[in-house]
Specification:
The structure holds three protein chains of three kinds. By secondary structure, chain A is mainly alpha-helical. In chain A, 74% of the residues lie in helices and 0% in strands. By secondary structure, chain C is an alpha+beta fold. In chain C, α4 packs across α5 (153-159), α9 packs antiparallel against α11 and α16 packs antiparallel against α17. The chains are: A mainly alpha, B mainly alpha, C alpha+beta.
């Protein structure tokens, strides 16, 4: 059901003007939501990069009494085993954002390629790719992810692969629609007539025009990935080898009523990141839709 | 859409469903681990495992198992559950109503709540109320469902006592007319939690669609005729703004069967999502595959129906 | 429930006031007003006020179970969920009292003959199945020969090899002829290990798919009424129960998968009985009014469980006992009891669950928590600790210098906290742990079939006799593809013969001495690292009395207002 947001946005993008406004970057710069979203994400990326230096303790090590509330020694408190939650939350930024970024890259690569090729080539290629896209679209994503992780064991690689391989169809549809419509426009015909190779047309004319819309869909999908990872943690399917916000949130479920700090801090981190991606994606949509 | 087009579409869809079931079958059977060991539990011996394996047809080569399975599915038989000792179709069927009730109500609630909120935000466009609604809906959307669920239970069911904590009906059941009210009281919290997760998308699309419509020519004409703001918004602008919402919600209806694994687990709701978790724990492969097939098929059917409806409403789509 | 939205401010009743005692101001606000404001346009919420389930009804006991059992035939499975629900409907030949001694059930008397190679059971007269048919010796013979010894994996594994024949000389007598003297038989005849099924319902059918598995006919204190798929099971008291009719007329088993929700449902009065409480919430619940608790080592999935880390003795790194000793010295068992179990269990005192060896001789002493000693042993083995990070090999035979000391650890998801704490404690002495969480079927295959692991964590439930639950950990015959058998791959002919001797000894004092020798031998060679002895906390509302921890927990219960 979480895909409804992506689908709705896709519909909105398809009704938007084909060619983004020439100054879409500048317009984006005037959006307050975009600045807030970008600010949040930049801060989180900064934390992720600097985590090893910022974190005071090994997130796996016992450094205090179990379940002690936030204090000077442990700004975010400790978990049941006595591990420092502040260090874990900082370290978690790395894993969570890495997962998000890898899934985003996979989705962009697969969805973008399928969409651009289908839309540009048309004909039988397009029909075949559309069938494949439809098949993936039908897959129940969360069902499939749970089954794969449960049967093949928890692991970041599997989470990234499953989510990446199942999250691209919306993007492919948007990109295909845009590409197909662009092909009908005069300036592409002109470029083709002047002897430009299809690759050149793709790289110079189509991708720059399709990219902003693609980024919106990816932004929304990535927000969902962070939440899905947390849900896996809740079901006991988190990867014990890596501290992520999702696994911290999942472990905190058993302590909601005895140690408020355990869900609070990783939860704030997840919410902030999802909010950041969504605000940015929404702002971009508004600009593209010409509002 | 001509009957021929419809037939072709249905055939393609059926093929897709079979591709999916083959992929799922191979995936589940290639996964490490032996279902028989999971079923047997502690102790046991080699002869016992061989006996169980033969019983479930797991001693045949994989392609043969797949073929047997596909032939049976074509006849509408999803096989016997390893642990229930009953037909998979019956086990899945008895859970469908609970799931549909929960996810369907949640969808209605999110649409029913999202549209008025979207309208309110659009009419306060750019002001503080707009930002509050947008951010509030986004924050709900950005919080893990399992916390929203448990905190809601603690606050509204336990502390305030407005709703029951869990389940789909009062223990022991309620007889007569009271039963409907009883199910509704149990439904309220899980449906709201589930709805809150997708409220943001509907608020946002309603809001942005409406902002465009409010500035469109035909709305300006209506205004010029002296119609009130309220009438213009609700009668003229909103219906056009909602078209994409309706299409998407319709196309997604099939996914309602995939249920709400997390919300069902926290609220103890006896739906398909819970059946999935139980089947995973006991490695009940026939149930896993049956669930997968039913959900995919529901999505496909709802997609086709939405296409047909869409084509009926908008002739341009028909020849897409 | 009237179909209206507006309703009066809710008065906290005597019953509800109990639960809003933490500075809550329920009665001050009009809940409906807030509700209406918060939940715009939700016609579904008609009558949502006064939401809590009806006040507890006298004579009705509601128990929470974590999952819906797949069926209700306890004779064909050892699944804990099936047994928790189905054992209430059935009986064994014998029962077990709180000290786990055999007491009469379907059999009233028994004789042990032939030095323990023949057991004669005299059955209770006048017992009837829930459908009115008379119970007889034929039911017992059928249940063992056609069902238990074929489908109940634990009974099949332990009794299968020793039972020669089971016969009924008359309608009220059953004789077990064994191939050799077998001491623990009487501990294996209760409703968990050997429930008796009705022959007239099951004979001639496949017991795994008989429809009665979903609508059982038993002899137990409760009879099956109906089931709501995935939601609840409804039982009624069996007025003709031979042990006396239960004090509650109705027993409802309510499926609540999330442990947090189970606790809230108990506090809110929606359920009366929990089979276990999450460790983290235990301390808070102990202070909550109107709740009572029973601490027990009994568990539907297996009793007297010792959480154990197995060293894979096939791995060269564990060939030297000093390595196993070092890793044992590195472990603080008390910390596991405190921070993982939250006092729902104790630090393990030896290889066998403390409840099964009631008078420890003092000779069984596990290596104490001593990181310094652990470090010295590891140094001596050639694993040295650089100034930072984990230990690396220097002059370890067969290992290239500089190889880091990294041990793999396999676990089921429910052991995640154990893995995390073990990693922290081992890393403190410079041994790194790579943790892999596996699903049951994969874990079993990796650990017991493929033996592809360094260390693995297993809860070995010892049962009611070391022959049932302990022997499988050490017997060389139980190395192999059987779940939860000899994970370490421990082979010792002396140990094998010690277990043989203990199994065929009837004299309790002599058996006890043999188990003492077995324990000391195990501690000397450390094939396993014994962490904790588990305890389960049953929690119930104090409107109910007479509850017990065993499988028939509600047989003598009474529930008032």
């Amino acid at each position: 059901m979480s895909r409804i947001a992506e689908e709705l946005t896709a519909a909105e993008l398809q009704s938007a003007p084909l060619v983004p406004p020439a100054d879409w970057r500048r317009q984006l710069g005037r959006s307050r939501n975009a600045w807030v979203g970008a600010g949040i994400l930049l801060m989180l990326v900064g934390v992720a990069v600097l985590a090893p230096w910022l974190a005071p303790a090994d997130p796996f090590a016992i450094t205090g009494p179990g379940l002690s509330p936030p204090s000077a020694a442990h700004p975010f408190g400790t978990d049941a085993l006595g591990r420092d939650l502040f260090s874990a939350t900082l370290r978690g930024a790395r894993v969570s954002l890495l997962v998000a970024a890898t899934v985003a890259a996979l989705v962009l690569a697969i969805g973008g390629a399928v969409g651009v090729i289908g839309g540009y080539a048309g004909g039988k290629v397009d029909a075949a790719l559309t069938r494949v896209t439809e098949m993936f679209q039908v897959l129940p994503r969360f069902f499939l992810t749970i089954i794969v992780i449960a049967l093949f064991g928890p692991g970041l690689d599997r989470i990234v692969l499953t989510l990446g391989l199942t999250s691209w169809p919306t993007l492919a549809r948007v990109v295909r629609g845009e590409t197909r419509a662009l092909r009908g426009l005069g300036f592409l015909r002109a470029a083709e007539a002047s002897g430009a190779s299809p690759v050149r047309v793709l790289v110079r004319e189509i991708i720059p025009n399709v990219l902003p819309a693609a980024l919106v869909v990816v932004g929304l999908a990535v927000g969902q990935v962070l939440l899905l990872e947390a849900s896996l943690g809740f079901l006991g399917l988190g990867d014990p080898e890596h501290v992520s916000w999702g696994s911290l949130a999942g472990q905190a479920q058993g302590f909601l009523r005895v140690a408020w700090w355990l869900p609070l801090f990783p939860g704030l981190a997840i919410t902030a990141a999802v909010l950041g991606f969504n605000l940015l994606a929404d702002a971009l949509t508004e600009v593209l839709a010409g509002r | 859409m001509t009957p021929w087009q419809f037939g072709r579409r249905a055939l393609q869809a059926l093929l897709a469903a079979f591709m999916i079931i083959i992929v799922a079958f191979v995936l589940v059977h290639l996964a490490p681990g032996d279902a028989v060991l999971a079923i047997a539990g502690e102790h046991g011996d080699a002869a016992y495992y061989a006996f169980m394996r033969a019983r479930f047809g797991l001693d045949a080569p994989l392609p043969e198992q797949l073929l047997t399975y596909l032939v049976r599915v074509l006849q509408g038989d999803f096989g016997q559950s390893y642990v229930h000792g009953r037909a998979v179709a019956a086990i899945i069927a008895e859970r469908i109503p609970a799931t549909l009730l929960l996810t369907g109500s949640a969808l209605l609630l999110s649409v029913g709540g999202g549209i008025p909120l979207g309208v309110a935000a659009a009419r306060r466009s750019g002001r503080r109320g707009d930002a509050a609604i947008t951010i509030g809906a986004l924050a709900l959307h950005a919080s893990p469902a399992f916390w929203v669920a448990q905190l809601t239970i603690v606050a509204f069911a336990f502390r305030l006592g407005w709703f029951p904590v869990q389940g789909m009906e009062t223990a022991g059941g309620v007889h007569g007319l009271g039963a409907v009210g009883d199910v509704l009281r149990h439904l309220a919290l899980p449906a709201l939690v589930l709805a809150s997760q997708q409220l943001a998308a509907i608020v946002r699309l309603t809001r942005s669609g409406l902002i465009i419509e409010l500035w469109s020519d035909h709305v300006r004409t209506a205004r010029a005729k002296g119609l009130s703001d309220r009438v213009v918004t609700w009668r003229h602008a909103l219906p056009r703004a909602l078209l994409p919402v309706a299409t998407i919600v319709g196309a997604r209806a099939g996914h309602l069967l995939a249920g709400a694994v997390i919300v069902e687990a926290v609220f103890g709701w006896p739906g398909l999502g819970r059946l999935l978790l139980d089947a995973l724990q006991s490695r009940d492969t026939p149930i896993l595959l049956g669930l997968f097939f039913v959900v995919s098929l529901a999505v496909i059917v709802s997609n086709i129906l939405t296409d047909v409806a869409h084509a009926a409403m908008d002739p341009r789509v028909a020849n897409r | 429930m009237p179909l209206r939205f507006g309703c009066a401010p809710r008065q906290a009743t005597a019953h509800t006031r109990l639960y809003v005692n933490e500075g809550n101001r329920v009665a001050e606000v009009n809940p409906c007003r807030r509700l209406a404001a918060a939940l715009v346009g939700t016609s579904l919420l008609l009558g949502a006020c006064n939401g809590r389930d009806a006040d507890p009804r006298p004579g009705v006991l509601i128990a929470a179970i974590p999952g819906a059992p797949a069926h209700l035939n306890p004779a064909i499975t050892t699944n804990g969920g099936v047994h928790a629900a189905a054992d209430l409907l059935y009986d064994g030949l014998l029962g077990l009292d709180e000290q786990q001694r055999p007491v009469p059930a379907l059999a009233t008397r028994w004789e042990v003959l032939d030095g323990g190679a023949q057991y004669v059971f005299h059955l209770r007269q006048g017992v009837r199945w829930h459908d009115g048919q008379a119970f007889s010796a034929a039911d017992v013979v059928y249940s063992f020969t056609d069902v238990l010894l074929r489908f109940h994996s634990r009974t099949r594994a332990s009794l299968g090899p020793v039972v020669d024949s089971i016969v009924a000389p008359d309608d009220s007598t059953v004789v077990f002829h064994l191939r050799q003297p077998y001491a623990p038989l009487l501990q294996q005849l209760d409703v968990v290990e050997a429930p008796i099924l009705p022959r007239h319902v099951y004979a001639g059918t496949d017991p795994q798919i008989n429809p009665a598995n979903n609508a059982p006919v038993g002899t137990g204190p409760f009879r099956f009424v109906e089931s709501r798929p995935g939601a609840e099971l409804r039982y009624a008291a069996n007025p003709d129960y031979f042990g006396g009719a239960p004090g509650v007329s109705q027993l409802i088993l309510r499926v609540i998968p999330d442990p947090g929700t189970q606790v809230i449902a108990l506090e809110a009065g929606e359920v009366d009985w929990l089979y276990g409480v999450p460790g983290a919430e235990r301390a808070r619940l102990l202070r909550t009014p109107h709740l009572k608790f029973i601490e027990t080592a009994l568990n539907a999935g297996g009793s007297n469980c010792v959480t154990t880390v197995a060293f894979n003795l096939d791995r060269p790194v564990f060939h030297d006992v000093r390595m196993r000793r070092a890793l044992t010295h590195a472990v603080d068992r008390q910390q596991f009891a405190d921070r993982v179990l939250f006092a729902q269990g104790t630090a393990a005192s030896g290889p066998i669950a403390s409840a099964l060896v009631p008078s420890p001789s003092g000779n069984v002493v596990l290596p104490a928590h001593d990181p310094r000693k652990a470090g010295e042993l590891l140094d001596a083995l050639g694993w040295h600790r650089p100034t930072t990070g984990m230990r690396v090999a220097r002059d370890v035979a067969g290992v290239p210098d500089g190889t880091p000391l990294l041990v793999s650890f396999k676990q089921l998801a429910s052991f995640a906290a154990y893995g995390d704490l073990l990693r922290a404690q081992w890393r403190a002495v410079g041994v790194d742990l790579s943790i892999e969480t596996l699903e049951t079927a994969v874990f079993v295959e990796d650990v017991f079939t493929a033996r592809n692991f360094d260390t693995a964590i297993i809860s070995y439930c010892n049962g009611f006799d070391p022959q049932i639950g302990v022997r499988r950990q050490y017997a060389s015959a139980s190395i192999g593809p059987v779940p939860f058998s000899n994970a370490a791959g421990y082979r010792d002919a002396v140990m094998d013969s010690l277990f043989d001797a203990a199994g065929s000894t009837l004299d309790p004092a002599a058996r006890s001495r043999t188990y003492d020798v077995i324990q000391r031998r195990a501690v000397d060679s450390l094939p396993y690292l014994w962490l904790t002895d588990g305890i389960n906390t049953r929690a119930y509302r104090d409107r109910c009395t007479g509850l017990s921890p065993g499988p028939h927990f509600a047989a003598r219960a009474r529930c008032g207002q």
